[in-house]
TrEMBL record:
<dbReference type="InterPro" id="IPR051534">
    <property type="entry name" value="CBASS_pafABC_assoc_protein"/>
</dbReference>
<dbReference type="Pfam" id="PF25583">
    <property type="entry name" value="WCX"/>
</dbReference>
<dbReference type="InterPro" id="IPR057727">
    <property type="entry name" value="WCX_dom"/>
</dbReference>
<feature type="domain" description="WCX">
    <location>
        <begin position="248"/>
        <end position="320"/>
    </location>
</feature>
<dbReference type="InterPro" id="IPR043839">
    <property type="entry name" value="PafC_HTH"/>
</dbReference>
<keyword id="KW-0647">Proteasome</keyword>
<dbReference type="Pfam" id="PF13280">
    <property type="entry name" value="WYL"/>
</dbReference>
<dbReference type="InterPro" id="IPR026881">
    <property type="entry name" value="WYL_dom"/>
</dbReference>
<dbReference type="GO" id="GO:0000502">
    <property type="term" value="C:proteasome complex"/>
</dbReference>
<feature type="domain" description="PafC HTH">
    <location>
        <begin position="16"/>
        <end position="138"/>
    </location>
</feature>
<protein>
    <submittedName>
        <fullName>Proteasome accessory factor C</fullName>
    </submittedName>
</protein>
<dbReference type="Pfam" id="PF19187">
    <property type="entry name" value="HTH_PafC"/>
</dbReference>
<dbReference type="InterPro" id="IPR028349">
    <property type="entry name" value="PafC-like"/>
</dbReference>
<feature type="domain" description="WYL">
    <location>
        <begin position="157"/>
        <end position="224"/>
    </location>
</feature>
Length: 339
C-alpha cells in the first residue's frame, strides 16, 4: 500500500511531535485554507496524523491574566469545514504574533553576510539571496543599519582563481609557502574551499605531481593560461582540506579544559592527562609553522610542551612579534597540508 500514511510509521516520539506541531501551525496560517490530504502530502505523514494534530491545536492556547483559559485564549478552527469537508481553516490563533524577532543589529549582520555571498561569481543573479535579504529587513524588530562589506586584499586573487576553475584552464602563479620560500607554480585548478576566514585552492601541482592545497592570500602574479587542465577524473580529490598523513607532526600541549572542543580537528587521539589545572593532549599538525597560528588564536590557553622544534618555532615567532616584525603574510592553518 502506498500513500502518505505509508511513508512514516504511526506514533511520533514526543520531541518529533513537538517539532511537527511547531511547523504545522505556521504552515496552516500561511495557507489559510488547506485540505487535510494536501497538508499530509506536504509533511509526508498520514491524513489521520494531520487530523489528530489539528484536534490537539484546537485545545492549545495561552492562559489569560487569571491563569485560566477563556474562549479567546485558545486556537479555534472552522469545525464545519473540518468535519464535513476535511478542510482546515484556523479562524483564531494566539501567541504566534508574540514570537521573538531579530534585532536590528542581528538582521544587519545577516544582511551583510548575504551581500558578501551575492558578490561571489557563482551566486551572481540568484534571486533567492535577494528575497531572503528582503525578508530579513521586513522581519527585524526595527530597520537594520545599512552596512557595506569591504573587499579583502585576497578578493582579486580569489576572482582569478575562480575564473580558472570555472574555465578549466591551467593557472600560473608565484607562491610563498609557510617556510618563506617563493616559487613559480603551474597547477590544474580543481576546487576552491574555505577554512575559517581563509580561502584555499585545491589543485594538481605539476611540480609535485600530486594534489596540493594553496592558500589564496599567499598567491601572487596570477595568470590564467590558454592551456586546458588535464583529465583528473580518476584521481582521488580529498573532500576536506585536512587529511591525516604519516608525515604529520605530533605536538604535545597543555591546554585549558574549556578550549578542548576547539581543538577537536587537531587531536591525534582521545588520550588526556591532567597537568595541574590543564589537560595534556597530543595534536596532529601538517607542519610546525602552522602551530604559531593555533597558539596565537588561543592566547594564554595553550602551552607547547614538546617536541623542542615546535617550542622553538613558537618562541622565535613570539620574539619576532615583540620586535615589531609584521611584514610577513599570516601563517597557514595548521590542519592544512600546503604545497
Amino acid at each position: 500500500m502506498s500513500g502518505p500514511s505509508s511513508r512514516r510509521p504511526a506514533g511520533l516520539r514526543a520531541p518529533d511531535k513537538l517539532v511537527f506541531l511547531l511547523s504545522l501551525v505556521p504552515y496552516l496560517l500561511e495557507q489559510r485554507v488547506v485540505d487535510v490530504a494536501e497538508a499530509a502530502a506536504h509533511f509526508g505523514v498520514g491524513e489521520q496524523e494531520i487530523r489528530d494534530a489539528v484536534m490537539l491545536i484546537a485545545t492549545s492556547g495561552l492562559p489569560g491574566a487569571t491563569g485560566t483559559y477563556q474562549p479567546n485564549d485558545l486556537f479555534d478552527i472552522d469545525w464545519d469545514s473540518f468535519e464535513e469537508d476535511d478542510v482546515i481553516v484556523i479562524v483564531h490563533h494566539v501567541a504566534i504574533d508574540d514570537a521573538p524577532r531579530l534585532s536590528a543589529r542581528e538582521a544587519a549582520a545577516l544582511i551583510a553576510g548575504l551581500q558578501y555571498l551575492s558578490a561571489l561569481p557563482e551566486n551572481a543573479g540568484r534571486a533567492s539571496l535577494a528575497a531572503l535579504t528582503e525578508k530579513l529587513r521586513a522581519g527585524a524588530s526595527s530597520a537594520p543599519s545599512r552596512l557595506a562589506v569591504a573587499e579583502e586584499s585576497a578578493d582579486e586573487s580569489l576572482a582569478t582563481v575562480r575564473r580558472a576553475v570555472a574555465s578549466g584552464h591551467r593557472l600560473d602563479f608565484d607562491y610563498l609557502n609557510a617556510r618563506g620560500e617563493r616559487r613559480r607554480r603551474r597547477v590544474d585548478p580543481l576546487r576552491i574551499a574555505s577554512l575559517g576566514a581563509d580561502w584555499y585552492l585545491q589543485a594538481y601541482d605539476h611540480l609535485r605531481e600530486d594534489v596540493r592545497n594553496f592558500r589564496v592570500d599567499r598567491m601572487s602574479d596570477l595568470e590564467v593560461t590558454d592551456e586546458p587542465i588535464g583529465d583528473h577524473s580518476g584521481r582521488a580529490i580529498p573532500e576536506t582540506l585536512f587529511q591525516a598523513s604519516p608525515d604529520d607532526l605530533e605536538v604535545v600541549v597543555d591546554v585549558a579544559p574549556a578550549t578542548l572542543p576547539l581543538l577537536g580537528d587537531y587531536l591525534a587521539d582521545s588520550t588526556q592527562a591532567e597537568a595541574g589545572d590543564r589537560l595534556r593532549v597530543t595534536l596532529r599538525l601538517s607542519h610546525v609553522h602552522g602551530l604559531k597560528r593555533l597558539v596565537a588564536g588561543l592566547p594564554g590557553l595553550v602551552t607547547v610542551v614538546a617536541p623542542d622544534v615546535a617550542r622553538a618555532a613558537v618562541a622565535d615567532w613570539a620574539e619576532a612579534g615583540l620586535a615589531g616584525y609584521s611584514d610577513a603574510p599570516g601563517d597557514p592553518d595548521p590542519r592544512v597540508t600546503e604545497a
